[in-house]
Amino acid sequence: MLRVLPMLTRTSCCTASTESSLLTQASSTRPTCHCLGVTAEEIREEIAAQDLTSVRQVTKACGAGGGCTACHRHIKRFLAEAAAERAATESLVPAFGFA
Length: 99
Ligand code: FES
Hints:
- The chain is mostly helical.
- The chain has a domain at 31-88: Arc Repressor Mutant, subunit A (Orthogonal Bundle), CATH 1.10.10.1100.
- The chain has helices at residues 13-29, 40-50, 55-62, 72-95; strands at 31-33, 38-39.
- The chain has a two-stranded antiparallel ribbon with strand order 1-2.
- A hairpin with a 4-residue loop joins β1 (31-33) and β2 (38-39).
- The model is unreliable at 4-20 (pLDDT under 50).
- The structure holds FE2/S2 (inorganic) cluster.
- Residues 33-36, 64-71 line the site of FE2/S2 (inorganic) cluster (FES).
- The site of FE2/S2 (inorganic) cluster (FES) has 12 residues, from loops.
């Protein structure tokens, strides 16, 4: 039996953009922590909302990382990104004279 599979092809810049946005949508809805079914967006929101700084705190907040620990490297990356963002924001404050 012949099966026709949908294919994403790069035929123009518009197609590449569509492909990219499809991949972004898929990765934002797919769980980062498969054991607990928590997405990257949910983890990032918890980190930002509660100023979390450790994997243990993230696990306590949303459950992510509470199983096999395979996602801990991703959670650590999200924590590092959030810390860098906070540091960049704090370094801007004196420059604008709000300190
Ligand atoms: S994938 Fe997150 S604890 Fe297993």
